[in-house]
Each structure stands twice: as C-alpha cells, then as structure tokens.
Amino acid sequence: MHPTTPSAAGPPAVDWAESGVVALTGHPDGPVLVPPGRAATRARELTSWIATVAGPAVAVDGARLLAERAAVNDLRRRGPVSAGGHCQLLPTADGWAAVSCARPDDPLLLGALIGGTVDAEDPWPAVADWVRGHRGAELAERAELLGVAAGPVLPREPADSPAPLTPRPVQGLLVVDFSSLWAGPLCAHLLGLAGARVIKVETPNRPDGARRGNPVFYALLHHGHESVVLDPTDPAGRRALRALVEAADIVIEASRPRALAGFGLDAEAAAARGAVWVSITAAGRQSNRIGFGDDVAAAAGLVAHDSAGTPVFVGDAIADPLTGLTAAALAMSAPADGSGVLWDISMTDVVAATLTADPVPRTLRRGDTWFIDSGTGSIPVSQPTSRTPIGPAADSGADTARVLGSLRIPAP
After folding, report:
1. What's the gap between Cα 72 and its chain centre?
2. pTM attached to this predicted model
3. How far apart, in whole angstroms, are the C-alpha atoms of residue 195 and residue 207?
4. Phi and psi for 87 in degrees, rounded to 5?
5. Planar angle of CA 202, 206, 209, nearest 5 degrees
6. Mean residue pLDDT across the chain
7. CA 352, CA 350: separation in Å to the nearest integer?
8. What's the whole-number mean pLDDT along residues 81-100?
C-alpha cells in the first residue's frame, strides 16, 4: 500500500544529492553512484503529506531521514557489503543475491541453508561458495523455509498508482507499538511527534534488537515513548497484551501473522472494531519471507551498478526508513466512514514502487566534493546528516506498572 501524496520535492537528482544516500553508495575507493528511481523524492513527498496532516511538529525532511542512521553511526559506502556490514551481495548461478547475517542465530541458520557448517565469526566464504553454485529461486525458497533474510536481486515492475488517502489527526490517540529496529519505530516516532501517546511493548526474552545498537539513534526514535514489558507465555501477560490492543487506536507491528496469533492477537478483529492496524512485513502478510532493510531493498531491485555492471548497495538499509515513512502516512489516514483498517505493508512493494526506467545520471568529482551531473548543471552531493535526540529513551519495561494502571489493565 502506497499513499498518494502532494509533491514538495524537487527533481530526483536534487533529492538524491541532498539525501546523503549517494555519499553512501558505491565502492569505498571509487566514485559515489546515483541510485535508480526516485526513493528520495518519494520520501520527501511522504513527509510533506505528513506535515500537512500533523503540522510543523512533524516538519522533517524525508530524504535526509533515509541516511540518518548512517550519520549517527558514521557509516561509509562499502560497495557489495552493506554500510552496516551485516549484508552482502553475492553472485548466484544466474545473477546476484543479497544475504544478511545480522542476528545472533544467523550463522546457524546459514549453515542449515547451505547444508554445512559455517564459521560463526566469518560465515561469508562458505555462504558465497554455496550461493555461487545455486540459482536465485532456490536460494529464495530455502531462505523463506529457514527464516533467513536473503533473496535474489530481481527487476521489479513499479506498483500501480495508489488511491488518495483521507487524512486524520492523531493528536491524543493511543499507539501500541510492537515493532523493533527501524521501520516500525520510525512510524511510531512520527506519530509521537504528531501528538499521539506511544506505548512500546517488548517481551522479556526478545527486547528490541536496536537497544544493542547506538543509544543515540535509539533515543532519537524512542524518546517520549512509554516502555512496557509483558510475557506472552504467561496467561496474565497475555491478557494484558490483549487489553492493550483493545485500548489502542493504532497498533504497529512487524511480525509474521502467525507469531502474533500465537500471542492471541488478532489484527482483523482489531480493525473490525475500528482500530488502525499497521502490519509491516518483508513481502506482505501472505508471505513467510524474513527480510531486513538492506536485503529487501536489493532484492526489490534498488541497487546501483558500478562501471563493470556489478551491483552495490544503495544507502543504509534504505527499505526501513522508506517503509517507516509510508507506514506513518497510512497511520495518519483512515477510511472516510471512520471504520478501522488493516494496512498490509510489504517492504518489497514500498521499494519497488520508487523504481523507474529513467536514465541514471553520472557523478563527477571536483577536489574533495562529488557532484551529480544532472544534464542541466552539477549538484553537490551532501553527506548524511542526523537530527539531535530530544532526550533519552525509557529503559525496557520502566513504565509497565504505570501504563497498565493508567489504562485500568490488571498487572500480571
């Protein structure tokens, strides 16, 4: 699902140049590269639409948000290795594929993928050797079966133009956020800036993995949100989780449907009672595919190519912020009749919708500065930039008792 938005962006070359993404795209010892399509322009369109709904408190630059995490973490372009270092582009028997190894259990899963043992400290030689001898379709099938974030790089047809949305303010609405990492939390962050009350929900055994990362970036997305920890394996915890969802105006989650069903949470039922349910997955709720920002973007076709035709990553996990912006715009809308809605947001589709067949401009260097040659002039390439967090994020579970009490939900 991709909301139609009024344009407040410039030509794609300008938006790419100002986003910071181009500086992150290419080989470390080679030229910066302009990505295909109009993802930076789309990001600016989305934040323009959000600002018209929510006002100046959410007047952020969508294009610059795409490289914000890289700015906080001082990431650089690494060609066929993602800026964060956890994903690689590898040749297959019939093309290229993106394979991620970001979670603690991924080396074990990659071993199962290739039917052998991999070095937990450096799984890439064994994985690359296996991938080189197999077709992309086989990799995708095995990856989905095993829960590995991997897929072949394939050209995609852009999605159909979406229908316009009906905006609605979210000031004072209750948002329950089950998501983690970047896409869902960015959506929740923008809703919080727009005046919603955001409650972040984690479980004791699976806190948000982003808590292990840079605390500055985590605070940027989570400051002002209340933190609740509940155990879905405990009957009282499950009842509290259901009660939170029943109280919510907006629910954000990024899990496969069967996982939430195991907790007793029903997206369709929530939408039927009038809630807005934002469901973020790699490839839609009907797919079991696992994916993260880098491998999803690459598999959707958003890669740049060097002079030899070799694909390289675009930016830093760009599917995540693109999806978070899309999700926020959808959450700030509702059917005209005031009924609830279940937004089924495929990260793959969000990325594919930004791709075009337009020629990709080249870059040139003058001194220490890279420029995009737009055909009508040279546009300087900006480095990634970041906003400053307003304050720290709440510790995991710090607000559990107070939040449940305020909503009259019995504590487990």
Report:
1. 16
2. 0.94
3. 25
4. -140, 145
5. 90
6. 93
7. 6
8. 98
Is the pLDDT confidence value at 105 over 90? yes
For residue 157, pLDDT over 80 is answered with: no
Determine the pLDDT at residue 262.
78
The mean pLDDT value for 229-250 works out to 94
> How far is it, in rounded angstroms, from Cα 62 to Cα 42?
8
Residues 6+ apart with CB under 8 A from 210: 180, 181, 182, 185, 217, 218, 221
The residue among 253, 294, 251 whose CA lies nearest residue 274 is 251
Whole-number pLDDT of residue 161: 59
Strand partners, 177: 200, 252
Burial of 369 (0-12, 13-18, 19+ CB in 10 A): exposed
Tell the residue number behind the tokens 């190894």, with chain if given.
101
Give the span between the Cα atoms of 313 and 271, in whole angstroms.
Answer: 37
**Token duo for residue 378:** 């040279």
Nearest to 298 by CA among 110, 77, 97: 97
Strands 226-229 and 197-202: parallel
Reply yes or no on whether the pLDDT at 92 is more than 80.
Answer: yes
Tokens of 287: 């797919």
Residue 257's pLDDT band (cuts 50, 70, 90): confident
Which among 241, 319, 338, 243 has a CA at the least distance from the CA of 280?
319
Q: Is the pLDDT of residue 3 over 70?
A: no
Quote the percentage of the chain above a pLDDT of 90: 84
- Window from 162-171, 261-270, 394-403 with minimum mean pLDDT: 162-171
